[in-house]
Design brief:
The complex is a heterodimer of chains A (about 300) and B (about 450). With about 300 residues, chain A is an all-alpha fold. Chain A contains 13 helices and 2 strands; from the N terminus they run H-E-E-H-H-H-H-H-H-H-H-H-H-H-H. Chain A has one domain: MetI-like fold (Orthogonal Bundle). The mean pLDDT of chain A is about 85. Chain B has about 450 residues and is an alpha/beta fold. Chain B folds into 2 domains: about 180 residues, Periplasmic binding protein-like II (D-Maltodextrin-Binding Protein, domain 2, 3-Layer(aba) Sandwich), CATH 3.40.190; about 210 residues, D-Maltodextrin-Binding Protein, domain 2 (3-Layer(aba) Sandwich), CATH 3.40.190.10. In chain B, about 40% of the residues lie in helices and about 15% in strands. In chain B, helix 2 runs antiparallel to helix 15. The longest helix of chain B has 20 residues. Chain B starts with 7 loop residues before the first helix and ends in a 5-residue tail after the last helix. Classes of the chains: A mainly alpha (about 300), B alpha/beta (about 450). The interface between A and B is large, with 40 and 36 residues.
Chain lengths: ~300, ~450
């Protein structure tokens, strides 16, 4: 009886041990992620336009104000278009680049290092340099276009080109970054599988389609979800290069929230906008999870 | 006997303390050997407690150096630590720090149209009792009024401003055009005609080596407001909130059609990011004319430009009214500062003579807001000969129908949204459509102040 009780006590102690190991990570997660999000939600229910003494509870007032604002809906549309284009584009290009970088040829490590160079440069520096390169009057890109007899392009000054230019710039950084994850995944696939497929007469596309893709499914899911979150909260290139313009064509929600809070001092409105962005991110990530889970099932 | 045993923790405390003390002792400057004992012990002077004032500004320490040195000499119990930030970071930090109720900075530079928004939010200390009536009377009435919110002085005037037409005389010679005289005032139409002739693209790559003209603050309402006002336009309604029916009217459309043409049709002004044109275009000799502030006079002199330069008056539209910009930097004290006495002494020093004179002559070179100093520009022999004479021309120009920016609690939103709008027009957007969008955006933002 005593032995059984001791076993029971040990078993119940053992039950708690995994949670103890998780505790430090959870404390950090709570302090730096969950608590600020909760504080942000609380903030979204107050107005900060007035002085601290006159700070008042407005309930859903900030949300109502944002939903009435036509600029918000335009920014939301731009943010969704931006995400719908950027995430699949970056994921597909990163996968393609990883397959290339996974080839067993002499000097491939040099190519891999070159591909990774954009990742090690700060996004602020990258944005500034691209801003100079793409300058309408003095930029190098336009200099090259003119040499080939092509017309000068406005790039970041045109409402039709600015968003696509920013997608290009962040993909220049994003594609090699996400490539690293795919490359790690590719190198984890046993070579024997490809050899067996080759013996069975599979061509390169069939090997990719029926071996590589299924075995990379989890990594694809991870990359797509992480990329979605990163791009939904993209800020620096917009702040540095366009400030939401021209004609609000790059006014992503994250930048709009920043401007509302830190330029205009409307912290309540900014927090409300961030909450909306958080909900969009949560829904998108949930859909992506479901999509990959159902395929696995 | 209550004998306490030395525990391991006690031992650690003692040994750590000893180590820290040894390290500190090693780092400390060598102590001089004690001097021979004086015959009579001198009465020890009570050590004076020095208070440090944290001041937030956009100017680097070297710009502030002489002003701070004079202040500290006159106030041995005070020190000033200047925290310099870039233009954008400056306004954003104020938003974050003052909104959070931070006790620092103790004092800050206040761009004068932000007096109302900061006053509305209760961020600045009332300064009514800090100044004597005589000191208040020395400020320009317009500056005193601009620093007052709901009857209280909350930002003390330091500087005011005007704008002049600066030109590169060599470019005019090359184009075979006579530049305007120092008391002559061109119309915008005359300026557009000359600017096109002053734009040179000699290598034919589509990018001129010499641009004809640009506004120094190319998308800021401060610099552009005189254009619609010259045509009878008004920047905001009398309630300080309404823009519908004001910034979408014919004078605004006409003025910004001119502005759009400058960049897109006549192409005498560059599009895109040009930084601060006085630094990036005018002084390097790549710009024939700019409407710019008098702070450029000293900067041009110091830069030893390799071309002859001159100044003329602020342009106006043919048949319209002459209007010039005004307003500049004031200084305020944080309402939450814990050093009220020190902060207000610094504020008073910078905004009155002799501090204001030191700041004008050795600091920012912004135009002083003190009548006694403006008078010095008229009488000081330093300003009789070119190039310092340009200061005297500017002092006179500052009296020609200066129009302040709108007084509104929503100035931050107003300025930022109009900045976006001017940027779009500059890059080719339709004028009417852009101004209508600006109306919608500003009206939506002003709603929260209509309570």
């Amino acid at each position: 009886m005593a032995v059984r009780r001791a076993d029971h006590t040990r078993a119940s102690t053992m039950q708690w041990i995994p949670y103890l190991f998780l505790l430090p990570a959870f404390i950090l997660l709570f302090t730096f992620r969950i608590a600020p999000a909760l504080a942000g939600f609380r903030e979204a229910l107050y107005t900060h336009n007035l002085s601290a003494a006159r700070r008042s509870f407005v309930g859903w007032g900030n949300f109502a104000h944002i939903f009435r604002d036509p600029i918000f809906w335009k920014s939301l549309r731009i943010t969704l278009v931006f995400s719908l284009v950027t995430n699949p584009l970056q994921t597909a290009l990163a996968l393609a680049l990883a397959v290339l970088a996974n080839q067993r040829v002499r000097g491939i490590s040099i190519f891999r290092s070159v591909y990774l160079l954009p990742v090690v440069i700060s996004i602020n520096v990258t944005s500034t340099i691209w801003g100079l390169l793409l300058n309408k009057d003095s930029g190098m890109i336009n200099g090259i276009l003119i040499q080939f007899g092509l017309p000068r392009q406005p790039f970041l000054l045109s409402p039709d080109q600015a968003l696509w230019t920013i997608i290009g710039i962040i993909s220049w950084v994003g594609v090699p970054y996400w490539m690293m994850f795919f490359l790690a995944g590719l190198q984890g696939i046993p070579q024997a599988l490809f050899e067996a497929a080759a013996i069975d007469g599979a061509n390169a596309w069939q090997s990719f389609r029926y071996i590589t893709l299924p075995l990379l499914r989890r990594i694809i899911a991870f990359v797509l979800i992480s990329d979605t979150v990163v791009n939904l909260f993209l800020f620096a290139p917009v702040w540095i290069l366009t400030r939401g313009g021209p004609q609000l064509s790059t006014n992503l929600l994250m930048y709009d929230a920043y401007r509302r809070g830190f330029v205009w001092g409307d912290m309540g409105g900014s927090a409300a906008m961030m909450m909306i962005l958080l909900v969009i991110a949560a829904i998108t990530v949930a859909v992506e999870f479901l999509l990959f889970r159902s395929r696995e099932g | 006997m209550n004998e306490k045993r030395l525990t391991r923790r006690d031992f650690l405390k003692v040994s750590t303390g000893a180590t820290v003390a040894a390290v500190l002792a090693a780092c400390a400057p060598p102590t001089p050997a004690p001097a021979a004992k004086p015959a009579e012990k001198a009465p020890a002077a009570a050590p004076q407690k020095v208070t440090t004032i944290n001041h937030l500004s956009i100017w680097s320490d070297d710009v502030f150096a002489e002003t701070i040195a004079l202040f500290e000499e006159m106030n041995p119990d005070l020190k000033v630590k200047n925290e310099a930030l870039s233009w954008n970071a400056f306004f954003e930090q104020i938003q974050v720090r003052l909104a959070a109720g931070s006790a620092e900075p103790d004092t800050l530079a206040v761009d004068v149209p932000l007096t109302a928004p900061y006053g509305y939010r209760g961020w600045l200390l009332p300064l009514d009792d800090v100044f004597t009536e005589e000191e208040k009377a020395d400020w320009l009435e317009s500056s005193l009024k601009a620093g007052t919110y709901e009857g209280h002085l909350i930002s003390a005037p330091v500087s005011t401003s005007t704008q002049l037409l600066f030109y590169n005389r060599n470019a005019f010679e090359k184009a075979g055009i006579e530049p305007p005289g120092e008391d002559e005032r061109w119309t915008w139409e005359q300026l557009a005609d000359a600017a096109q002739k002053l734009t040179f693209d000699e290598d034919g790559d589509g990018t001129p080596e010499m641009w004809g003209f640009i506004w120094e603050q190319v998308i800021r309402i401060y610099q552009l407001q005189p254009m619609p006002m010259s045509l009878g336009g008004v920047p905001i309604g009398p309630d300080g909130l309404t823009v519908r029916g004001y910034i979408d009217t014919d004078p605004w459309i006409e003025a910004f059609t001119y502005y759009r043409k400058a960049f897109n049709e006549w192409k005498f002004a560059p599009q895109g990011d040009v930084g601060w044109p006085s630094d990036t275009l005018f002084r390097p000799g790549k710009l024939a004319m700019e409407v710019a502030g008098p702070w450029n006079i000293k900067q041009n002199i110091d830069a030893n430009l390799d071309f002859e330069w001159g100044v003329s008056r602020h342009p106006y539209f043919d048949g319209g009214t002459i209007v010039t910009p005004t307003g500049s930097w004031h200084i305020g004290a944080n309402a939450n500062t814990k050093k009220i006495d020190a902060a207000t002494r610094w504020v008073r020093f910078v905004s009155t003579v002799p501090g204001a004179e030191k700041w004008w002559r050795t600091g920012s070179h912004d135009f002083p807001a003190q009548k006694s100093l403006l008078e010095k520009i008229k009488t000081d022999p330093q300003f009789e000969e070119w190039p310092w004479k340009a200061e005297r021309i500017a002092a006179d120009e500052a009296t020609v129908n200066p129009q302040p920016r709108p007084v509104t609690p929503g100035y931050l939103e107003y300025e930022e949204i109009l900045g976006d709008t001017f940027s779009d027009i500059r890059n080719g957007a339709d004028v009417k459509e852009s101004l209508n969008t600006a109306v919608e955006r500003i009206e939506a933002e002003m709603d929260k102040y209509r309570k």
